[in-house]
Design a protein that fits this description.
Layout: H1 7-16, E1 29-37, E2 42-50, E3 60-69, E4 84-91, E5 96-101, E6 131-140, E7 155-163, E8 168-173, E9 175-176, E10 206-211, E11 218-225, E12 236-246, E13 259-262, E14 265-268, H2 275-281, E15 286-292, E16 295-303, E17 312-317
Antiparallel strand pairs: 1-6, 1-9, 2-5, 2-7, 3-4, 3-6, 7-8, 10-15, 11-14, 11-16, 12-13, 12-15, 16-17
């Protein structure tokens, strides 16, 4: 993963990411729950729509990155490390859309796709090496002070995570917060509590998922805990797997392994299953249930097996409201 990619190829990859239509849904602050940055190998393209109906004197959008090294000093996935914060305030106009490369691999983190609007600076994270994080966006004045614009149908967004050299991409939508600019996404989307895009919802903290044979595919979960003060707090969430079945319909009982995630992290399925159970399903795959509390979860399966003719990524929102 060490090659460059043309802007034309970026456009083509973004078209592959299905279902990412711009959509305003009850909010004027946003959470992009998954960001991956490791230029020039991997990046995240984020797009923010500033809707045409906002009032309240908001002339700017403030972008708050929460991020950390993807791995610790020993090369192990950094599940429990705290996040750092980077805040950018940029000009905006009603009805505008701005797209940018979080890693800064394209256009140095400035607005993409020939955008001629003046924003007063770039949008990139500005940190080298493998990073994981999330992004908050809110209506503000020129100094970054949040403003209640009197319209909860203003901001919307999308993101696409791109494995550049292999040409693979997956993505999702930003989450809108009905609580406005307090960055508390516990009650986003659902009046009276709950988040359509997070667990628990519909009375369950677990969602079923399938997994391909681990000998050929890797299964990973991107987990971002949600709650109050996401612009500054180091929120945590437990993650575990239960009810694992093999491809012959046989239940594989094992002692649950519960790991903790701080701020945001990627958790591999392998780390949630004991060695004997893993050996039993390694060449077949199966299905199980993933559980957590107050977190947004994306499931990713990927493979570089030559029989699939290139790098293959398949990512989707696991923590939606649909049961089981």
């Amino acid at each position: 993963m060490n090659t460059d990619i043309s802007m034309c190829r970026i456009s083509s990859l973004l078209l592959v990411v299905a279902g990412l239509t711009a959509e305003s849904a009850g909010a004027d602050s946003l959470l992009f729950p998954v960001l991956v940055s490791n230029a020039p190998n991997v990046t995240t393209i984020a797009s923010v729509v500033d809707g045409p109906t906002a009032g309240g004197g908001a002339t700017h959008l403030t972008y708050i990155y929460r991020y950390k090294d993807a791995f610790d000093s020993s090369g192990v996935a950094n599940r429990n490390g705290n996040c750092s914060t980077r805040t950018l305030t940029r000009s905006s106009i009603s009805g505008d859309v701005v797209s940018f490369d979080v890693a800064g691999a394209f256009e140095g983190g400035n607005a993409l796709f020939g955008d001629a609007n003046f924003y007063g600076g770039g949008f990139g994270l500005g940190v080298t090496g493998p990073q994981r994080g999330y992004l908050l966006v809110a209506n503000t004045n020129s100094t970054g002070v949040p403003l209640v614009v009197g319209d909860d149908l203003d901001l919307s967004g999308e993101f696409a995570v791109m494995e550049i050299a292999g040409g693979a991409a997956w993505g999702g939508k930003a989450i809108n917060d009905v609580n406005r600019e307090d960055f508390d996404f516990i009650n986003a989307n659902i009046a009276g509590g709950g988040v359509y895009s997070a667990l628990p919802s519909n009375g369950s903290a677990f969602r079923r998922f399938t997994f391909a044979p681990p000998s050929e595919w890797s299964t990973r979960f991107f987990v971002t805990p949600i709650g109050a003060n996401m612009d500054s707090a180091q929120l945590t969430a437990p993650v575990s797997v239960a009810d694992l079945y093999d491809r012959d319909g046989q239940s594989r009982s094992f002692t649950s392994i519960v790991l903790s995630v701080t701020c945001t992290a990627a958790v591999d399925l392998r780390d949630l299953v004991d060695s004997s159970t893993w050996a039993a399903v390694e060449n077949t795959g199966g299905w199980a249930s993933f559980g957590t509390n107050d977190a947004v979860v994306y499931k990713l399966e990927y493979s570089s097996d030559p029989q699939y003719n290139g790098t293959v990524n398949n990512g989707f929102l696991l923590s939606d409201s649909a049961l089981p």
